[in-house]
């Protein structure tokens, strides 16, 4: 073998090793909302259903635990489902590490699942409350062999903002100081300091056992109000930005628009996109290696009406009531990926009419905002069955993973894997969104 051949072989091996090493540093945080277990019909999932996803995940966040309002302790929100004296899902999920030893399994806290939302602020205000929470958290993590805790803390969310043109936006800025009050938490500075203390105290209690501590920034939470990044970042293993649900039928019942754009859209709130959220954390001295970009596995649908126009180009005026729901989740305005893909034109539905008629998909050639699909209603019947949906799919998820790679960020988070196509009904592949995003890393 010539020296040149040996050199080329070594160089190629080095490049492969470097590429593999870079890929290996990227986290793939898979969120598993255990409430999916109690859904009925097609939406129900169990641990066997999610197992095919686990080889693609570096972390699994099992959610959600919550806060007992009387004791400030971290508790299961469904003891019959989670604890050993019930069905023992805490134990079952952490036992998966025997089969997937590289997988880190964290217990998620809050995540929008806890009805005691006000308790997340009042707990912070009491040092005794924080101690009670920390002691209970440590006990739960240790007893059930979790690898740590993910703080999907339920801070108040910002109010939705109406989309305005240039002139309207200028006029609104002039009159806003005299006509509106956007304060959502008058004690936000105190809560920021107290949350910093909670993170520090939690990490100290976890340090001896080498448990991980992570933060998930929930959708529409203003990070500048609650997170002192330089003070907390060294005590966190990663920060997952749930950068989606900027527009939803609940928050914006009269206006349909992209729920999770990658970049800013013209004449929109400049903060309502993935890139802004990432850049804010980086600008606050958050290390890129700890920033995780959250990718939804679902979408949102609005009903179309007579004021919606015929082009389908967002933003669209929509009727306030009657947002459609899918057969899997049965939640008005919310569709999982398999529900969304089943609405698109395919050989089995191309001839159908009315509420079963397919939606026409419009792709985003810029790869900046997302795809959408729609069908116009019958103008002679009050635009009955008109619908506009925007949802994540393997292509858009891959674009976001490509963004993560290009920016040198820490990885991606899938919210959540039970809403991906875990049965493989869309294309034959199970978990296509997770797969597409993982491969782009």
From TrEMBL:
GO terms for molecular function: chitin binding; chitinase activity. PROSITE patterns: GH18_2 (PS51910). Its main location: secreted. Gene3D superfamilies: 3.10.50.10, Glycosidases (3.20.20.80). It comes from the Eukaryota. InterPro entries: Chitinase_II/V-like_cat (IPR011583), Chitinase_insertion_sf (IPR029070), GH (IPR017853), Glyco_hydro18_cat (IPR001223), Glycosyl_Hydrlase_18 (IPR050314), IDGF (IPR015520). GO terms for biological process: carbohydrate metabolic process; chitin catabolic process. Pfam families: Glyco_hydro_18. Residues 1-21 form the signal peptide. Keywords: Disulfide bond, Glycoprotein, Secreted, Signal. It is found in: Secreted. Residues 26-441 form the GH18 domain. GO terms for cellular component: extracellular region. Belongs to the glycosyl hydrolase 18 family. IDGF subfamily. This is Imaginal disk growth factor. The lineage of its organism: Eukaryota, Metazoa, Ecdysozoa, Arthropoda, Hexapoda.
């Amino acid at each position: 073998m010539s020296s040149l051949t040996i050199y080329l072989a070594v160089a190629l091996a080095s490049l492969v090793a470097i590429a593999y090493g870079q890929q290996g540093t990227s986290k793939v945080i898979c969120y598993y909302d255990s409430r999916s277990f109690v859904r009925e019909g097609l939406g129900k999932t169990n641990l066997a259903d999610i197992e095919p996803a686990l080889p693609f995940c570096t972390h699994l966040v099992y959610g959600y635990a919550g806060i007992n309002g009387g004791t400030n302790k971290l508790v299961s929100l469904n003891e019959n489902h989670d604890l050993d004296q019930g069905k023992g899902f805490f134990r079952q999920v952490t036992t998966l590490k025997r089969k997937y030893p590289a997988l880190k399994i964290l217990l998620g806290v809050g995540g929008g699942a806890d009805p005691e939302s006000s308790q997340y602020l009042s707990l912070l205000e009491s040092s005794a409350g924080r101690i009670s929470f920390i002691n209970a958290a440590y006990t739960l993590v240790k007893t059930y062999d979790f690898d740590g805790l993910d703080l999907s803390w339920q801070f108040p969310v910002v109010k939705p903002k109406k989309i305005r043109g240039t002139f309207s936006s200028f006029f609104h800025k002039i009159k806003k100081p005299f006509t509106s009050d956007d304060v959502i938490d008058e004690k936000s500075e105190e809560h920021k300091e107290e949350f910093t203390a909670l993170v520090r105290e939690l990490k100290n209690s976890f340090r001896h056992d080498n448990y991980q501590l992570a933060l998930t920034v929930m959708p529409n939470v203003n990070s500048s109000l609650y997170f002192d990044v330089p003070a907390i970042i060294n005590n966190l293993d990663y920060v997952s930005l749930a950068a989606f649900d900027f527009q939803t039928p609940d928050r914006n019942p009269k206006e349909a628009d992209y729920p999770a754009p990658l970049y800013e859209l013209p004449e929109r709130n400049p903060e309502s996109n993935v890139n802004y959220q990432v850049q804010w954390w980086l600008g606050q001295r958050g290390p890129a290696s700890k920033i995780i970009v959250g990718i939804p596995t679902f979408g949102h649908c609005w009903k179309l009406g007579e004021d919606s126009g015929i082009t389908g180009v967002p933003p669209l005026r929509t009727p306030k009531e009657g947002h459609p729901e899918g057969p899997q989740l049965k939640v008005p305005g919310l569709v999982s990926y398999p529900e969304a893909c089943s609405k698109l034109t395919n050989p089995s539905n191309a001839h159908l009419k009315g509420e079963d008629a397919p939606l026409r998909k419009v792709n985003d050639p810029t790869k900046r905002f997302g795809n959408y699909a729609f069908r116009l209603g019958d103008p002679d019947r009050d635009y009955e069955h008109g619908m506009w949906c925007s949802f994540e799919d393997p292509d858009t998820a891959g674009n976001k993973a490509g963004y993560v790679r290009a920016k040198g960020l820490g990885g991606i988070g899938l919210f959540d894997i039970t809403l991906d196509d875990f049965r493989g009904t869309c294309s034959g592949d199970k978990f296509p969104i997770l797969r597409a995003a993982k491969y782009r890393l």
